[in-house]
Specification:
By secondary structure, this protein is an alpha+beta fold. It has three domains: about 15-85, Uridine Diphospho-n-acetylenolpyruvylglucosamine Reductase, domain 2 (2-Layer Sandwich); about 90-215, Uridine Diphospho-n-acetylenolpyruvylglucosamine Reductase, domain 3 (2-Layer Sandwich); about 225-300, Uridine Diphospho-n-acetylenolpyruvylglucosamine Reductase, domain 1, CATH 3.90.78.10. It is about 25% helix and about 25% strand. It contains seven helices and 19 strands. A hairpin with a 2-residue loop joins strand 6 (about 90-95) and strand 7 (about 95-100). The structure holds flavin-adenine dinucleotide. Flavin-adenine dinucleotide binds near residues 70, 85, 102, 141 and 219.
Length: about 300
Protein backbone atom coordinates (compact mmCIF):
# COMPACT_ATOMS: atom_id res chain seq x y z
CA UNK A 1 0.00 0.00 0.00
CA UNK A 2 1.50 3.36 -0.95
CA UNK A 3 2.28 5.89 1.72
CA UNK A 4 1.74 9.53 0.94
CA UNK A 5 2.25 11.28 4.25
CA UNK A 6 3.36 14.88 3.71
CA UNK A 7 5.58 16.94 5.92
CA UNK A 8 3.72 19.91 7.36
CA UNK A 9 3.68 22.89 5.00
CA UNK A 10 4.58 20.70 2.01
CA UNK A 11 2.40 21.32 -1.05
CA UNK A 12 0.01 18.55 -2.05
CA UNK A 13 1.16 16.80 -5.20
CA UNK A 14 -1.95 15.45 -6.91
CA UNK A 15 0.14 13.46 -9.40
CA UNK A 16 1.60 11.52 -6.49
CA UNK A 17 -1.74 11.15 -4.76
CA UNK A 18 -3.74 9.87 -7.73
CA UNK A 19 -3.02 6.30 -8.77
CA UNK A 20 -4.25 4.84 -12.05
CA UNK A 21 -5.75 1.38 -12.64
CA UNK A 22 -5.58 0.16 -9.06
CA UNK A 23 -6.62 -3.52 -8.58
CA UNK A 24 -9.29 -3.60 -5.89
CA UNK A 25 -9.63 -7.31 -5.03
CA UNK A 26 -6.90 -6.71 -2.42
CA UNK A 27 -9.24 -4.24 -0.67
CA UNK A 28 -12.22 -6.60 -0.61
CA UNK A 29 -12.47 -9.16 2.19
CA UNK A 30 -13.89 -11.65 -0.35
CA UNK A 31 -10.98 -10.91 -2.71
CA UNK A 32 -12.99 -10.20 -5.85
CA UNK A 33 -13.59 -7.16 -8.04
CA UNK A 34 -11.91 -5.27 -10.85
CA UNK A 35 -9.81 -2.17 -11.10
CA UNK A 36 -10.37 1.43 -9.99
CA UNK A 37 -9.91 3.90 -12.86
CA UNK A 38 -8.29 6.19 -10.29
CA UNK A 39 -7.73 5.65 -6.58
CA UNK A 40 -6.25 7.70 -3.75
CA UNK A 41 -5.47 7.28 -0.06
CA UNK A 42 -5.84 10.72 1.52
CA UNK A 43 -4.23 10.96 4.92
CA UNK A 44 -5.66 14.28 6.05
CA UNK A 45 -8.31 16.87 5.51
CA UNK A 46 -6.35 18.96 2.98
CA UNK A 47 -5.59 15.99 0.74
CA UNK A 48 -9.20 14.90 0.87
CA UNK A 49 -10.44 18.34 -0.11
CA UNK A 50 -7.91 18.56 -2.95
CA UNK A 51 -9.08 15.19 -4.29
CA UNK A 52 -12.73 16.18 -4.10
CA UNK A 53 -11.93 19.43 -5.98
CA UNK A 54 -10.12 17.44 -8.66
CA UNK A 55 -13.04 15.01 -9.06
CA UNK A 56 -15.54 17.87 -9.26
CA UNK A 57 -13.49 19.80 -11.84
CA UNK A 58 -13.14 16.66 -13.97
CA UNK A 59 -16.73 15.52 -13.43
CA UNK A 60 -15.61 12.18 -11.99
CA UNK A 61 -17.96 10.06 -9.88
CA UNK A 62 -16.58 9.35 -6.40
CA UNK A 63 -16.77 6.06 -4.49
CA UNK A 64 -15.67 5.65 -0.88
CA UNK A 65 -14.12 2.35 0.18
CA UNK A 66 -13.38 1.47 3.81
CA UNK A 67 -12.24 -2.04 4.70
CA UNK A 68 -14.30 -3.60 1.88
CA UNK A 69 -15.81 -6.09 4.36
CA UNK A 70 -19.44 -5.39 3.48
CA UNK A 71 -19.16 -4.40 -0.18
CA UNK A 72 -19.21 -6.28 -3.46
CA UNK A 73 -16.96 -4.58 -6.00
CA UNK A 74 -17.91 -5.13 -9.64
CA UNK A 75 -15.60 -7.24 -11.84
CA UNK A 76 -15.83 -4.30 -14.26
CA UNK A 77 -14.16 -2.10 -11.66
CA UNK A 78 -15.09 1.30 -10.30
CA UNK A 79 -15.46 4.33 -12.53
CA UNK A 80 -14.02 7.74 -11.62
CA UNK A 81 -12.19 8.24 -8.34
CA UNK A 82 -12.18 5.67 -5.53
CA UNK A 83 -11.19 7.14 -2.18
CA UNK A 84 -9.71 4.44 0.04
CA UNK A 85 -9.89 5.59 3.66
CA UNK A 86 -7.14 3.43 5.15
CA UNK A 87 -4.76 6.36 5.74
CA UNK A 88 -7.34 8.37 7.71
CA UNK A 89 -6.52 6.75 11.03
CA UNK A 90 -5.47 9.26 13.69
CA UNK A 91 -7.13 9.39 17.08
CA UNK A 92 -7.09 11.72 20.05
CA UNK A 93 -8.88 11.97 23.39
CA UNK A 94 -10.77 14.94 24.84
CA UNK A 95 -11.88 14.07 28.37
CA UNK A 96 -14.26 11.14 27.95
CA UNK A 97 -14.51 11.67 24.21
CA UNK A 98 -12.59 9.28 21.98
CA UNK A 99 -12.16 11.00 18.61
CA UNK A 100 -11.04 8.84 15.71
CA UNK A 101 -10.65 9.21 11.96
CA UNK A 102 -13.03 7.01 10.03
CA UNK A 103 -10.47 4.91 8.14
CA UNK A 104 -9.06 3.27 11.26
CA UNK A 105 -10.02 -0.40 11.70
CA UNK A 106 -12.78 -0.65 14.29
CA UNK A 107 -11.06 -3.48 16.17
CA UNK A 108 -7.85 -1.40 16.38
CA UNK A 109 -9.85 1.66 17.48
CA UNK A 110 -11.32 -0.34 20.38
CA UNK A 111 -7.80 -1.41 21.43
CA UNK A 112 -6.59 2.19 21.32
CA UNK A 113 -9.57 3.43 23.34
CA UNK A 114 -8.79 0.84 26.02
CA UNK A 115 -5.14 1.96 25.95
CA UNK A 116 -6.46 5.48 26.58
CA UNK A 117 -8.47 4.20 29.57
CA UNK A 118 -11.86 4.44 27.82
CA UNK A 119 -14.32 1.58 27.46
CA UNK A 120 -17.76 0.77 26.06
CA UNK A 121 -17.13 -0.58 22.57
CA UNK A 122 -15.65 -3.95 23.58
CA UNK A 123 -18.61 -6.06 22.39
CA UNK A 124 -17.82 -4.92 18.84
CA UNK A 125 -14.36 -6.51 19.13
CA UNK A 126 -13.30 -8.49 16.07
CA UNK A 127 -15.87 -6.86 13.81
CA UNK A 128 -14.02 -6.47 10.49
CA UNK A 129 -13.84 -3.14 8.67
CA UNK A 130 -13.34 0.51 9.53
CA UNK A 131 -14.97 2.93 11.94
CA UNK A 132 -16.53 4.75 8.95
CA UNK A 133 -17.95 1.58 7.40
CA UNK A 134 -19.44 0.57 10.75
CA UNK A 135 -21.12 3.96 11.21
CA UNK A 136 -22.37 4.00 7.59
CA UNK A 137 -24.28 0.72 8.10
CA UNK A 138 -24.78 1.00 11.89
CA UNK A 139 -22.94 -2.24 12.52
CA UNK A 140 -23.79 -4.17 15.63
CA UNK A 141 -22.92 -7.30 17.55
CA UNK A 142 -23.98 -8.87 20.85
CA UNK A 143 -26.67 -6.23 21.41
CA UNK A 144 -24.30 -3.25 20.98
CA UNK A 145 -24.60 -0.95 17.95
CA UNK A 146 -21.84 1.41 16.90
CA UNK A 147 -24.40 4.24 17.25
CA UNK A 148 -24.96 3.55 20.98
CA UNK A 149 -21.95 5.57 22.16
CA UNK A 150 -21.50 7.80 19.13
CA UNK A 151 -21.64 11.51 19.94
CA UNK A 152 -20.72 13.31 16.72
CA UNK A 153 -19.61 12.57 13.17
CA UNK A 154 -17.61 15.00 11.05
CA UNK A 155 -18.18 14.38 7.37
CA UNK A 156 -17.21 16.12 4.17
CA UNK A 157 -19.69 16.62 1.37
CA UNK A 158 -18.24 16.11 -2.11
CA UNK A 159 -18.31 19.90 -2.61
CA UNK A 160 -15.42 20.04 -0.07
CA UNK A 161 -17.42 21.41 2.89
CA UNK A 162 -16.93 19.91 6.35
CA UNK A 163 -20.02 19.33 8.53
CA UNK A 164 -20.53 18.14 12.08
CA UNK A 165 -23.53 15.99 12.88
CA UNK A 166 -24.54 15.56 16.52
CA UNK A 167 -25.92 12.10 16.87
CA UNK A 168 -29.58 11.44 17.66
CA UNK A 169 -30.16 7.77 18.32
CA UNK A 170 -33.63 7.79 16.75
CA UNK A 171 -32.00 8.41 13.36
CA UNK A 172 -30.27 5.01 13.57
CA UNK A 173 -31.89 1.61 13.28
CA UNK A 174 -30.95 -1.96 12.37
CA UNK A 175 -28.18 -1.64 9.72
CA UNK A 176 -29.20 1.92 8.93
CA UNK A 177 -27.74 5.32 9.75
CA UNK A 178 -28.51 8.84 8.55
CA UNK A 179 -25.54 8.30 6.17
CA UNK A 180 -26.62 5.01 4.57
CA UNK A 181 -28.46 6.61 1.64
CA UNK A 182 -26.08 9.55 1.18
CA UNK A 183 -23.87 9.14 -1.86
CA UNK A 184 -22.34 12.62 -1.62
CA UNK A 185 -20.33 12.38 1.60
CA UNK A 186 -17.23 10.90 3.17
CA UNK A 187 -17.26 10.29 6.91
CA UNK A 188 -14.08 11.83 8.28
CA UNK A 189 -13.99 11.67 12.07
CA UNK A 190 -16.20 10.23 14.77
CA UNK A 191 -16.45 11.12 18.45
CA UNK A 192 -17.53 8.43 20.92
CA UNK A 193 -18.47 9.31 24.49
CA UNK A 194 -16.92 6.41 26.40
CA UNK A 195 -16.53 5.37 30.04
CA UNK A 196 -13.26 6.16 31.81
CA UNK A 197 -11.80 3.19 33.68
CA UNK A 198 -8.68 2.14 35.46
CA UNK A 199 -9.67 -1.54 34.95
CA UNK A 200 -8.34 -1.72 31.41
CA UNK A 201 -7.37 -5.38 31.73
CA UNK A 202 -11.05 -6.30 32.34
CA UNK A 203 -12.08 -4.39 29.22
CA UNK A 204 -9.34 -6.02 27.16
CA UNK A 205 -10.40 -9.45 28.38
CA UNK A 206 -14.03 -8.78 27.40
CA UNK A 207 -12.98 -7.64 23.94
CA UNK A 208 -10.65 -10.58 23.40
CA UNK A 209 -13.42 -12.98 24.43
CA UNK A 210 -15.92 -11.77 21.83
CA UNK A 211 -13.20 -11.73 19.18
CA UNK A 212 -12.22 -15.27 20.10
CA UNK A 213 -15.88 -16.34 19.84
CA UNK A 214 -15.92 -15.04 16.25
CA UNK A 215 -12.78 -17.05 15.52
CA UNK A 216 -14.12 -20.27 16.99
CA UNK A 217 -17.46 -20.01 15.18
CA UNK A 218 -15.51 -20.07 11.93
CA UNK A 219 -16.50 -16.73 10.43
CA UNK A 220 -12.90 -15.81 9.61
CA UNK A 221 -12.08 -19.19 8.05
CA UNK A 222 -12.95 -18.23 4.48
CA UNK A 223 -13.03 -14.93 2.61
CA UNK A 224 -16.51 -13.38 2.83
CA UNK A 225 -18.26 -10.03 3.10
CA UNK A 226 -20.23 -10.95 6.20
CA UNK A 227 -23.99 -11.36 6.11
CA UNK A 228 -25.39 -10.86 2.63
CA UNK A 229 -29.01 -10.09 3.55
CA UNK A 230 -30.60 -8.15 6.38
CA UNK A 231 -32.96 -10.14 8.56
CA UNK A 232 -36.55 -9.60 7.45
CA UNK A 233 -38.83 -8.48 10.29
CA UNK A 234 -39.53 -11.49 12.52
CA UNK A 235 -37.18 -13.85 10.66
CA UNK A 236 -33.49 -14.74 10.39
CA UNK A 237 -32.27 -14.59 6.80
CA UNK A 238 -29.80 -17.42 7.52
CA UNK A 239 -32.54 -19.75 8.82
CA UNK A 240 -34.71 -19.12 5.74
CA UNK A 241 -31.77 -19.87 3.42
CA UNK A 242 -30.90 -23.00 5.39
CA UNK A 243 -34.50 -24.23 5.15
CA UNK A 244 -34.20 -23.96 1.37
CA UNK A 245 -31.33 -26.50 1.66
CA UNK A 246 -28.89 -24.03 0.15
CA UNK A 247 -25.96 -24.50 2.53
CA UNK A 248 -22.95 -25.47 0.40
CA UNK A 249 -24.74 -24.54 -2.86
CA UNK A 250 -22.38 -22.85 -5.32
CA UNK A 251 -22.29 -20.90 -8.55
CA UNK A 252 -18.83 -20.67 -10.15
CA UNK A 253 -16.38 -20.15 -7.30
CA UNK A 254 -18.98 -18.63 -4.94
CA UNK A 255 -20.51 -20.86 -2.30
CA UNK A 256 -23.08 -20.55 0.49
CA UNK A 257 -21.14 -21.15 3.68
CA UNK A 258 -21.80 -24.50 5.39
CA UNK A 259 -21.55 -22.76 8.77
CA UNK A 260 -23.52 -19.55 8.16
CA UNK A 261 -26.19 -19.77 5.47
CA UNK A 262 -26.36 -15.96 5.21
CA UNK A 263 -22.68 -15.79 4.20
CA UNK A 264 -21.17 -16.43 0.77
CA UNK A 265 -17.57 -17.55 0.74
CA UNK A 266 -14.76 -17.60 -1.81
CA UNK A 267 -13.02 -20.65 -0.38
CA UNK A 268 -10.99 -21.68 -3.43
CA UNK A 269 -10.09 -18.11 -4.51
CA UNK A 270 -11.85 -18.74 -7.84
CA UNK A 271 -15.01 -16.69 -7.30
CA UNK A 272 -15.78 -13.57 -9.29
CA UNK A 273 -18.09 -10.82 -8.11
CA UNK A 274 -20.49 -11.89 -10.90
CA UNK A 275 -20.59 -15.43 -9.44
CA UNK A 276 -21.43 -13.94 -6.04
CA UNK A 277 -24.13 -11.70 -7.51
CA UNK A 278 -25.66 -14.65 -9.40
CA UNK A 279 -25.70 -16.67 -6.17
CA UNK A 280 -27.37 -13.79 -4.32
CA UNK A 281 -30.12 -13.67 -6.97
CA UNK A 282 -30.56 -17.45 -6.80
CA UNK A 283 -30.96 -17.35 -3.01
CA UNK A 284 -33.45 -14.50 -3.25
CA UNK A 285 -35.55 -16.44 -5.78
CA UNK A 286 -35.53 -19.66 -3.74
CA UNK A 287 -36.52 -17.91 -0.51
CA UNK A 288 -39.20 -15.93 -2.37
CA UNK A 289 -40.62 -19.10 -3.87
CA UNK A 290 -40.63 -21.10 -0.66
CA UNK A 291 -41.65 -18.42 1.87
CA UNK A 292 -42.99 -15.47 -0.18
CA UNK A 293 -40.42 -13.26 1.58
CA UNK A 294 -38.18 -10.95 -0.45
CA UNK A 295 -34.67 -10.83 0.98
CA UNK A 296 -32.92 -7.45 0.78
CA UNK A 297 -29.14 -7.05 0.74
CA UNK A 298 -27.16 -5.74 3.68
CA UNK A 299 -24.07 -5.52 1.46
CA UNK A 300 -23.40 -2.55 -0.81
CA UNK A 301 -22.64 -2.87 -4.51
CA UNK A 302 -19.73 -0.68 -5.59
CA UNK A 303 -18.65 0.09 -9.16
CA UNK A 304 -20.04 -0.71 -12.60
CA UNK A 305 -23.00 -3.01 -11.94
C1 LIG B 1 -16.42 -12.20 8.78
C2 LIG B 1 -17.32 -11.01 8.87
C3 LIG B 1 -18.14 -10.83 9.99
C4 LIG B 1 -18.98 -9.72 10.08
N1 LIG B 1 -19.76 -9.55 11.22
C5 LIG B 1 -20.56 -8.48 11.31
C6 LIG B 1 -21.35 -8.28 12.49
O1 LIG B 1 -21.31 -9.04 13.45
N2 LIG B 1 -22.15 -7.18 12.54
C7 LIG B 1 -22.20 -6.28 11.52
O2 LIG B 1 -22.94 -5.30 11.64
N3 LIG B 1 -21.45 -6.44 10.40
C8 LIG B 1 -20.64 -7.51 10.28
N4 LIG B 1 -19.88 -7.67 9.15
C9 LIG B 1 -19.96 -6.69 8.07
C10 LIG B 1 -18.86 -5.59 8.14
O3 LIG B 1 -17.85 -5.98 9.00
C11 LIG B 1 -19.42 -4.28 8.63
O4 LIG B 1 -20.50 -3.87 7.85
C12 LIG B 1 -18.32 -3.20 8.61
O5 LIG B 1 -18.68 -2.21 9.51
C13 LIG B 1 -18.08 -2.61 7.23
O6 LIG B 1 -16.98 -1.72 7.30
P1 LIG B 1 -16.01 -1.48 6.06
O7 LIG B 1 -15.07 -0.41 6.41
O8 LIG B 1 -15.43 -2.76 5.60
O9 LIG B 1 -17.07 -0.97 4.97
P2 LIG B 1 -16.97 -1.09 3.40
O10 LIG B 1 -17.39 -2.46 2.99
O11 LIG B 1 -15.69 -0.58 2.90
O12 LIG B 1 -18.13 -0.06 2.99
C14 LIG B 1 -19.47 -0.31 3.31
C15 LIG B 1 -20.28 0.92 2.85
O13 LIG B 1 -19.90 2.02 3.64
C16 LIG B 1 -19.39 3.07 2.83
N5 LIG B 1 -18.29 3.69 3.57
C17 LIG B 1 -17.25 3.06 4.17
N6 LIG B 1 -16.46 3.97 4.78
C18 LIG B 1 -17.01 5.17 4.56
C19 LIG B 1 -16.66 6.51 4.91
N7 LIG B 1 -15.56 6.80 5.65
N8 LIG B 1 -17.45 7.51 4.47
C20 LIG B 1 -18.56 7.26 3.71
N9 LIG B 1 -18.94 6.03 3.37
C21 LIG B 1 -18.17 5.00 3.78
C22 LIG B 1 -18.95 2.42 1.53
O14 LIG B 1 -19.04 3.34 0.44
C23 LIG B 1 -19.99 1.31 1.40
O15 LIG B 1 -21.18 1.83 0.84
C24 LIG B 1 -19.01 -8.76 9.03
C25 LIG B 1 -18.17 -8.93 7.91
C26 LIG B 1 -17.33 -10.03 7.83
C27 LIG B 1 -16.43 -10.20 6.64
Amino acid sequence: MPTNVRNSGEKINLDQLLLKQVPLAQYSSIHTGGVADLAAYPSDFEELRELLDYARENKLPITVLGGGTNSLISDEGIEGLTIITSHLKRRHVQGEMFCVRCGLGLDRAIDLAIEDGLTGLELLGGLPGTVGGAIHGNSSAHGTSISDLLYYVDYMTFDGKLHRKQIHLDEFSYRRSPFTDRHDIILYEAGFRLYPTTQTSEARKKKDEVKHRRKTNGQYDNPSIGSIFVNPEGYKAGALIEQCNLKGYSIGGAQISHRHANMIINSNAKATSSDIKALIEHVRQEVQQQFQITLVEEIQYLGRW
